Each structure stands twice: as C-alpha cells, then as structure tokens.
Amino acid sequence: MDIDLYFEPIELDGYEYAEKAKRRRLGDVVKAYTNANNFPNLEGIDIAILGVLEDRNAVNNSGCSKAPNEIRKYFYRLFEGNYKAKIADLGNIKTGHTVEDTYFAVSRALRELIKNNIVPVVLGGSQDLTFANYQAYEDLGQIINIVSVDPLFDLGNTDNEINSRSYLSKIILHQPNYLFNFSNIGYQTYFVDQEGIDLMKNLFFDTYRLGQVQTNLEEVEPILRNADLISFDISAVRFSDAPANGNASPNGLYGEEACKIAHYAGMSDKLTSIGFYEVNPEKDPNGQTAHLTAQIIWYFVDGFYNRKNELPHQEKRKYIKYHVTLEDEKDELVFYKSKKSERWWMEVPLRSSQKVKFKRHHLVPCSYLDYQTALNNELPDRWWRAYQKLM
User: Fold this and answer.
1) Is residue 38 part of a domain?
2) Which pLDDT band, with edges at 50, 70 and 90, does 261 fall under?
C-alpha cells in the first residue's frame, strides 16, 4: 500500500512506556511512524490509527485539530488487554491546502486500509471528516450502513458548504449514493427540529433518543453490529465527563456508557472503520476528555479482539433457525440465533434482482426482544424499516 505520502510522522516523547513491566503498555506494542524512514510495515496489521489535524469546517469548536496527539498521550499509557495487539500508528494525515485536499487524502488512505482488511481508527479533527470516510467506501463501490453517536443528526443546511453540522446531508444527497442505512445513537430532542425527525422517519433511518439508550443500553448492540462505519462525536458525552468541546451539554452519555458502546462497536464483525471527533484540547486543561477518549478507544480495541466471526449469511449451519408466523401477514418471519454467542439476526426478504446488491443487508442484527415482539404477533420496528428500504 503506497499511502505513506499522505502522512507525516509523530513525536512519541514522554508517552510513558513500560518496557520493564510484566504487562505491556500500548505504547510498547503499537508500530508507530516516528520518522521519515520508518513508515510501518502493514503486513499482518489488524488496526491502523491515523490522526487528522483538520478543523477548518468545525462549528463552534475551533481547536479540535490538536486532539490526535493529545489522545495518543493517554492511549499509549494504557495496558494491553488479554490479546496480542497488531496495531500500527500511521501518524497524521498531512493537512491539505484546502479542506477538500484533506478529505481526498483521508478517503484515499482509508480506502486502501479497508480494501486490505485493516480497520482504520480515525482521530479527528472535526466530524465533517466522516464525509471523507464515507467517500472511501464510495471509491470501493460498497453500499454501507453508518452509525453516528451524536446528540444531533448533523443535517445542517444543504445549501451551505459542508461542515461538522451538515456532513450527513452531503452524504444523503451525494450521487451516486452508497448509503443503505443511517442510525443515530443518543440524540437529544431539544437539539433537533421536527423537520429533521420527520426526515429520519421518511427515510426509514434508525434514531434512538438518549433516554432510550440509557434505559436499555444492550439494545444498541444490534445497531452497532449492523454498522460498516461509526462516527463518534465526543459532544454525545455529558459535559461533566467530557468538557473539552465547544458544544458540550449538561446531558449526554456517561463515560462508562460511551466505553460500552465502543466495546460493542469493536465486537461487530461487519464494522470496517471508526472515527472519534470534536475533542478540543484548548478546552481540556486537565486532559480529562482526551483521557476518556483514549479509554473509549481502548474498549473498542478490546472489543475488536473479542470478535466472534459471526456472519450468518455465510455459515447458516452455525445458527438455530426460528420461524414465526404473524396473523394477517403473508410471509413468515425468520430469525437466526448464534449457537456460539446467542446473538440474534432476522431475515428480510429480497427480490431476486436485489440479491447481489443487498446481500450484506438482508440479514439484520436484532435482539431477543425483537423475537419476543414477533411472538406477540407484532412486526418488529427494525424489520419493518429494513423491509421498506429493500422494497
């Protein structure tokens, strides 16, 4: 992969290694790009970390471009979990003359990593970089699902230039379009206008209010299991836990909940890229938010190394198949339960002309609660929204 031309090396001085410790810190483990002659060999690498020092399109959060190196300081102090991590830190993407130049470099680098089965972990920078992440899949011709952990939908004004509050509209309207589904986790209703809520419903996208998420956090696991790309805005975490953001709010996820979400994300066999955005070191004098973000990423890595390699459309013999017949419905509902992890999926019927294009999307991750809903003669919302998109 000739992607080194997009990167510049990073300084690792003072990252507190633990060379004499019995357990290794991540700073001892990660292959890092520290000078112009040692760009990491990516053969055998599972996860690639890359920083993007870009915030020219940030809304009310100038300064978040400094986050990648601050997050690294805390991340590399953490101990490796019960696994042998194969992680490379590629350094920071060279900031382009224009924001579009940066987007181009990010999308090209991510495209090559994803194509070679390496999961990129993007350290932003502002959240509009999610658009560049999406473009990597467009270049690969892959139809994807995006999950955003965010108190807003980031629809913005479609007539304006792209920014951290409007990138989603750019993705939805972009042609040709490779977005199959979008899910939001943790939106706060008083930050979202009714027009935005109606648009999400009309597009059959999945949205989960903060209260829903906190009431039953386990129910977000199937959403994350269905994601190809995850965009995590640190403003989704409450101000008391993550103050370093110009848009931080008194309400939001607790730090522990954010870590659990990241762990679920890491365990998703489908997920191929993730980004963490909007941490602003200028508003983080004690390093609290950078430290929390480092721990969130640690949980993602731990989840990644606990993946179950479960993709029901490939090996259905490893799953128990359940048939549920609903009154007044022509077709029965088909569910699959993993014999290994006891996780659930449900099958959404495809027309023969769709089977190649949507093969990855007709088996929808779900929960036992969805199965119980069907047994109670009700159509699960998750099934209905997926069916509407496949019609």
Assistant:
1) yes
2) very high
